[in-house]
Amino acid sequence: MDYNGAAIVAMKGKNCVAIASDRRFGVQAQTVSTNFKKIFEVHPQLYYGLGGLATDVLTLSEIFEYKLSMYKLREGRDISPKTFANLAASTLYERRFGPWFVEPVIAGLEKDGTPFVCGMDLIGALNFATDFIVSGTAKEQLYGMAESLWEPDLGPEDLFEIISQTLLNAQDRDALSGWGGVVTVITPEGATTRYLKSRMD
């Protein structure tokens, strides 16, 4: 889990939810790339982030893409965040004896506009959060910052500011993550993605 490094956080707001990640792809202390994708779109109301071993991030995102396409083909509708959380958990649990080294974070809005965030460990044990959820090598730093800054019923702009500050301050204290950030804020009207500049060292 500590080979490539990651910092991923999702937070609830008032009728909105946000998910953010760093952009570094490194091999232990050596930085290889600064635009590695760790957050993936399911549909405009649902995103997920994968923190962990980079090869498993790529493989698992393709497995999810296939399973989500099959779901849409069979059901004829977009998957809800809670259903996707269970799909992701069962996908990880299938490989429990030789697990994917990935800890997913899921953020989205339910049909009625209720914000939803959850995370899981590498064998799919679900953790439904009422405030925020974190993943990656910067987990402890993200918890500390999020506990300090997050408050209930944040609007989309305030939520963007809080999650950005949480991510940037946490990854500054973790040698294996960083090199910029990407933040997606999901509202009933759609999703907005913004890129953050950060310390490049």
Mind explaining what this structure looks like?
- InterPro entries: Ntn_hydrolases_N (IPR029055), Proteasome_beta_3 (IPR033811), Proteasome_bsu_CS (IPR016050), Proteasome_sua/b (IPR001353), Proteasome_suB-type (IPR023333).
- GO terms for molecular function: endopeptidase activator activity; hydrolase activity.
- It is found in: Cytoplasm; Nucleus.
- Pfam families: Proteasome.
- The protein is built from 4 helices and 12 strands; from the N terminus they run E-E-E-E-E-E-H-H-E-E-E-E-H-H-E-E.
- It is α+β, with helices and mostly antiparallel strands.
- It has a 5-stranded antiparallel sheet with strand order 10-1-2-11-12, with helices on one face.
- The two termini are 22 Å apart.
Descriptive labels:
31% helix, hydrolase, five-stranded antiparallel β-sheet, 201 residues, Glutamine Phosphoribosylpyrophosphate, subunit 1, domain 1, alpha+beta, Proteasome subunit beta, single chain
- The CATH class label is Alpha Beta
CATH H level: which superfamily?
Aminohydrolase, N-terminal nucleophile (Ntn) domain
Proportion of β residues? 25-35%
How far apart, in Å, are the first and last alpha carbons? 22 Å
How are strands sequenced across the largest beta sheet?
A: 10-1-2-11-12
Mean pLDDT: 90
CATH architecture: 4-Layer Sandwich
Oligomer: single chain
Low-confidence runs of at least 5 consecutive residues: none
For the secondary structure, the number of strands is 12
The percent range for helix content is 25-40%
**Overall tally of structural domains:** 1
The global form is globular
Provide the gyration radius in Å. Answer: 16 Å
Q: How is the main sheet built? A: 5 strands, antiparallel
**Structural class assignment:** alpha+beta
Name the helix and strand elements from N-terminus to C-terminus, one letter apiece: EEEEEEHHEEEEHHEE
User: What is the CATH third-level topology name?
Assistant: Glutamine Phosphoribosylpyrophosphate, subunit 1, domain 1
The number of helices is 4
